[in-house]
Amino acid sequence: MTKWSRALSAVPLLATAGLAAWDMTQKKHALLRNFPVIGHGRYLLEKIGPELRQYIITSNDAERPFSRDQRSWIYASSKGENNYFGFGTDDDMEDNVGYPVIKHRTFTATPPPSGSHTADDVVLPGAKVLGGPRGRRKAFRPGSVVNVSAMSFGSLSGPAVEAINQGVRLAGALHNTGEGGLSRHHRQGGDLVLQIGTGYFGCRDERGRFDLGLLKEVVASAPVRAIEVKLSQGAKPGLGGVLPAAKLTSEIAQIRGVPLGHDVVSPSRHAEFTDIDSMLDWIERIADETGLPVGIKSAVGDLGFWDDLVEQMARGDRGVDFVTVDGGEGGTGAAPLVFSDAVALPYFVAFTRVYGRFARAGLTDEVTFIGSGKLGLPKAATMAFALGADLVNVAREAMLSIGCIQSQKCHTDTCPTGVATQNPWLVRGLDPALKSVRLATYLRTLRRDLLKVSEAVGVLHPGLIDPDDIELLEGTRHGVPLREVYGYEPGWGRLGDAVAQEISALMTGTAPVGGSAAPSATAD
After folding, report:
1. Is Signal found in the keyword set (predicted)?
2. Cα distance between residue 495 and residue 107, in whole Å
3. pLDDT tens per residue, range 396-415
4. Which of 126, 327, 450, 515 is the most buried (most CB within 10 A)?
5. What is the rounded distance in angstroms from the CA atom of residue 16 to the CA atom of residue 4?
6. Using an 8 Å Cβ cutoff, are 219 and 187 in contact?
7. Residue 454 contacts by C-beta under 8 Å, 6 or more apart in sequence?
């Protein structure tokens, strides 16, 4: 052995000895002081524990917020691959309480076709005209029942936003900007819903006050189809948003109108209104000035707000064009644990309580209801439509389709796939041209499956599925229709006759219909 090779072989020993000496003399970590060197193994396992559980230890259905089966379905769907599952379900139907079962019909005029990719190209528009009931000048029928929920540039990287906007353009869907303003990354040709949050980013003056003139300029500069006023979100209901200074670039600061070097904190409440009365005045002013449909997004807690809103809308002179109900399950926004876990009602409880108030007042056909909260899978989305949602928004599912691996590092600026970070090295790994196609394919696949399920139930559109078409099981002992579970009265969850006839007419001749072989000579 040469002198150099002996010296090199001693390097690991010297490094280990140096590490041991540092461990034994430091006082910050008792574990390392008592177990030098090997104590680092514990911290390593803690650091990579989520990855070990995700890929090695947990079962297909155990992981949260999205199980391995759910992620696999989204990944396969976004790539246009086989997203079927074999050998029967591995869901625990025998003991699961609240397991949904969709009740198909044996004889229908609209049996679904059997091909795995049949209906990929079918347009599945919203059943209601957004802004139509209130006569907005730029009212429109959404081209897709599945759209992308609010995620700001800043929380997401520029390439991720570009991929989403290009993807919704390919799929004919809508892209909600999130409260962070409208950036160049949003201007890839996809139609937009401009969200206004409590910070009024992108439409605020130098003192942070809302600027209606600036809002009109932003709306005129891009294909903005509607405006959503964010009151709260499921990830952190009752709190304002926070963009850490580490993720604040000069581009983001310019778009939002904020200084560099500081956390960007959205207030928890709006400054432009303080109650339902002043909120409706403000919304009507924005709708009049822009001509656009204007709605609200909110998580659901105290129901007094909704009682007051319905009471004032029942007068007919003012109102919101759409209501986005966000589930308290938590979403793309990072939040204190107690808020993610325990503040605001989960989606299905939240939505049904809000919808019931509008239904009791006879206002459900006057408002477009949008559901948001882990609804980007066919089973959950079908339940949402059955309970009265007209559109569903997807956020985390959209992130998964463009490369997210559920590492849950959204708030650290270290997202390994470049989706939720501003780190240039990590961002470079995300190709918008490729990922946009995957998002579009995922959206089309979800719409296709929703259409097939609708036809299995015997209708031409998911908006025509009603609460009696789905039951929630109590293991293998008992099943209860959604109508009874959520206390829906007769007619609730269904579209009005005129709206139902209109969407049925639109879908007739568009949706492919399956069926059987040609009848024999002796068939009845």
Report:
1. yes
2. 23
3. 999 999 988 887 777 777 78
4. 327
5. 19
6. no
7. 460, 461, 462, 464, 465
